[in-house]
Amino acid sequence: MLLKANRNSYTHDPLATIAIETTDGRKSLEVIEAYDVLVHVESNANAAKAVIGTYRTENQRSSATPGATYSTTIHFPSSLPTVPRVLVALTKLQFWHSQYWTVRVQSFSQNVCRENFICTSRAWLGTMLYNVGVDWIAIEESGWQSGVFGTGDITGWTPTDILEHRIDFAKPFEDGPPMVFVAFNTIDLDGPRNMRAYAASIDYRGFNLAVLRGEESETIVHAAAVTWIAIPASDVMKKRNAWIGSFASGVGGTGSQITHDHPNRWDGHVDFGFEFKRSPKIFVGLSQMSAAADKQLQLGVTTSDVTTSGMNWRIESWDDTMLRSAGANFIAVDTDYC
Fold it and tell me: Is pLDDT at 242 greater than 60 in this prediction?
């Protein structure tokens, strides 16, 4: 049979028949065995091979227990051609009885296959984490490089140190310095919740990854881990299938407007560096925060109203959290996967 794609739909058939027109105008039928047909009616030839999604728990505060683990199986829209690289970034944190307590959270992917993966977030020891949110991205693009780096990868690192490490790309980028995304996937700290992750000195061979605590010397970073993704300049400037940017409570990025009408919320808008052919999918993660130690730590970042040229964003906190500032990095991706 011939495969037909409905608008915004996908078709999968293990034994697909594809119509082929020859140079002399004749048509023939060719059978492709065990072939995944993934079609989008508005597909873009330059679309990135990546799937993006969000996972959030919605628990009541009364369910908070020390050292809780939250885990779920996430299924891709269709079986992917290859086993992807799956990376996660924190977007929402809700701790209970976190005043003066160590804040501990770790998110990661495991058991990744072509059909699905397990997304896990956990606290440990006495930390009571009752809600967590993560964004995830499954990457098949061979030209995109990615990884996770943290304090545990540095021999002899101590909590009083500032993490600054050179990340060397597995293969230098041939078209010049890439765009680099960084965001937290693991946080373990005492004192004022004041820390920031960023990429600097980016060139075609690598970049410097830094995790800094705030000016308050009481902040103790016991451990931290960061997800990083490097996208070739050609994908940004020529294919125009991805853009990396940032927003924060004080700075919203290029073409941004920020409102702070609610004491626990910042709303803003950010423009992309170019106009996509269609609205992209958004992968976002926390990259900085500054909050008081003697209050609960509950904060989250979300995006909405995504268009071809930009999107709205929100940073908010709950209960008695005293959030002085926060920020996030994002990747906007033109992908055929819904």
Answer: yes
CA atoms within 13 A on the CB side of 322: 8
Q: Determine the Cα–Cα distance for residues 202 and 291; give it in Å rounded to an integer.
A: 29
Q: What is the Cα–Cα distance from 316 to 104, expressed in whole angstroms?
A: 20
Produce one character per residue of 21-33: b if its CB has 16 or more CB atoms within 10 Å, e if not. eeeeeeeeeeeee
**Three-state SS letters, 213-264:** ECCCCCCEEEEEEEEEEEECHHHHHHHCCEEEEEEECCCCCCCCEEEEEECC
- Higher-scoring residue by pLDDT: 34, 209: 209
Measure Cα distances from 270 to 98, 166, 258, 306 in Å: 32, 29, 9, 10
On the question of pLDDT at 151 being above 60, the answer is: yes
- Look at residue 44 in the predicted model and tell me its pLDDT: 77
- For residue 97, pLDDT beyond 50: yes
Instruction: Reduce the DSSP state of residue 197 to 3 states and report it.
Output: strand
Instruction: Give pTM, 2 decimals.
Output: 0.84
Using CA atoms, how far residue 283 sits from 28, 167, 254, 274, 304, in Å, is 42, 21, 18, 17, 12
Do the strands 257-262 and 242-248 form a parallel or antiparallel pair, or are they unpaired? unpaired
| pLDDT single digits (tens) 71-96 | 999 999 999 999 999 999 999 999 98
* pLDDT > 90? residue 38: no
Judge whether 233 and 242 are in contact, CB under 8 Å.
no
DSSP code, position 266: E
CA distance to 27, 100, 152, per residue, from 109 (Å): 46, 30, 18
